[in-house]
Amino acid sequence: MIDIDYFKKYNDCYGHQAGDRCLIAVADTIKESCKRPFDIVGRYGGEEFIVVLSDTDSEGSALVAERIRKNIYNLKIKHEESMIDNYISVSAGFYCGVPNEGDTMEVFIEKADEKLYNAKKYGRNRVEN
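and the corresponding structure tokens:
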């Protein structure tokens, strides 16, 4: 799970058209940061994105998540209203596991969302596992 830090403040400051351009740039960067053709990238809602990396362990997931975070920061999209930096940044949380019989995707999303919450709680512009 990936969330753009202080995106509401971005929209309020720069307007919704700029916000839409920002979302597109972030989505493109996430997609480009995932190297394998079977990695799944999607917008989860608002300013949140989801990445599904099948057959990837915790170490590999951490590398991809950190690459995404850095690549988005390196876009240098101005964000004067951010409370942590002058540029757009993201917080990310990931969960690795093998589904059990009967598990739904929601189980994995909830666990990753808990990690995302921790990334925000501990300062944003970071990755938590």
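(Above: one complete record from the training split.) The chain has a mean pLDDT of 95.
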